[in-house]
Amino acid sequence: MYICKICNKEYSNLLGLSSHLKQKHNYNILQYYIDYEKFEIPKCDCGEKLKYVAGLNFRSTCGNKKCLKKLQKNRIQSNETRLKISNKMIQLSKDGVLKGWSINNDINRRSYPEKFFIKLLEMNDLYSKYTIKEKLSFGKYFLDFAFLEIKTDVEIDGQQHFISEKAINHDLKRDQYLLENGWNVYRIAWLELKNNPKKIIKDFLVWLSETKSYRKYDINEILSKLNNHKSKKTKFDIEKKKQLILDCNINFSEMGWIKKSTEQLGFNPFIFIRKYMPDLYEKCNKKHKKSKINKHKNRKKCFEDRKNEYFEKNKPIIEEILKSDINFSRKGWVKQVSKIINISENKGGQWVKKNMPDFYKTCWKRCSHNLIE
Asked: Are residues 121 and 212 in the same domain?
């Protein structure tokens, strides 16, 4: 039973007491319990008050990110809960809902390096000597090529396997797990396999005959090869672009050379010339700058010239407006002015304000008319 200590009424549940306090005494249930029942709000490990939900319910933490992370780490799941989660994930992977699981074990989704290695295996007749299974699931990992009789895992590694420390450490943990569980591991970098396939497959066959447990390529050596390959490719591309620019029949000292070269080459060469062809860049830019300086000596003068040009252009229209029989002290002058200028009806006032500011002050305006009234 729940008794209201303000009016001594009894209620069978907390919800009834809560609604009574709100309607009759304008009291929140939490505030009532603090004032009359000496209730204390529970505190988080950090010392702050727990996050309030509703009624007398609170969250497990104060809501701070650090406290939430700490709670997740300390939360221990029972074996029954773990088994339920595991069975659910296995069922979802079978149904194809967990896409991350289905990519690794799908034989039809082979990468190009894996297809290349399969051809080498077929050429050396290894499929007849060994039972080779692709994407074999072992523990929480999937093996690229599992030689079942000799318990050997062959991994074909692309650039993503040695591009960061996280990826390298992940592979080391994986290899250690397989070695501890009686597997041999042979890792091949795609870059070495692509450049020298005959040597790599020969070394692999020798390694199989010697029955060694582990082989991995030198990461530093592979990275240096990769960087050299990239630098050679970029150098070749730069030289090719330079030749294209030099071969095109364009006078770079004339105005409009950027537009002409873009149409002819299919790309804007301005940034490329500035970066990789400084001699040619100096030739084209000097002419371009001189022409601008000769026309406008400074920005102020340029602005004043344009302003004067605009005023001269509108001078006959201003004269025509001043000579017209329009009564500017009455409503409706904006439409009549718009007809003279040949613009939309509601823009005549803006035009007069811009081009005839002193005259505009004497004209009738909606706000001034209301003030007079």
From this structure: yes
Q: Based on the number of CB atoms within 10 Å of its own CB, is 81 exposed (0-12), middle (13-18) or buried (19 or more)?
A: exposed
Q: At what angle do helices 112-123 and 197-210 cross, to 10 degrees?
A: 60
Helices (H) and strands (E) in the chain, counts: 19, 9
Q: What percent of the chain has pLDDT over 70?
A: 87
Task: Please check whether residues 232 and 251 belong to one and the same domain.
Answer: yes
pLDDT digits (tens, 9 = 90+) for 82-133: 788 888 877 776 665 655 444 455 666 788 888 899 999 999 999 999 999 8
Please report, to the nearest 10 degrees, the dihedral formed by the alpha carbons of residues 320, 321, 322, 323 taken in order. Answer: 50
For the segment 265-309, what is each residue's pLDDT rounded down to a tens digit?
A: 888 888 888 888 888 888 775 544 444 444 555 777 878 888 888
If asked whether residues 281 and 329 sit together in one domain, one would say no
Query: What residues make up the domain containing 230?
Result: 225-294
Q: What SS3 class is residue 12?
A: coil
- Look up tokens 């007809």; give the residue: 339
The amino acid occupying position 345 is E
Q: What is the DSSP string of 136-164?
A: EEETTEEEEEEETTTTEEEEEE-GGGSSS
Domain total in the chain: 5
The tokens of 125 are what?
């007749």
What is the C-alpha to C-alpha distance for residues 197 and 259, in angstroms, rounded to an integer? 48
CATH number of the domain at 144, please.
Answer: 3.40.960.10
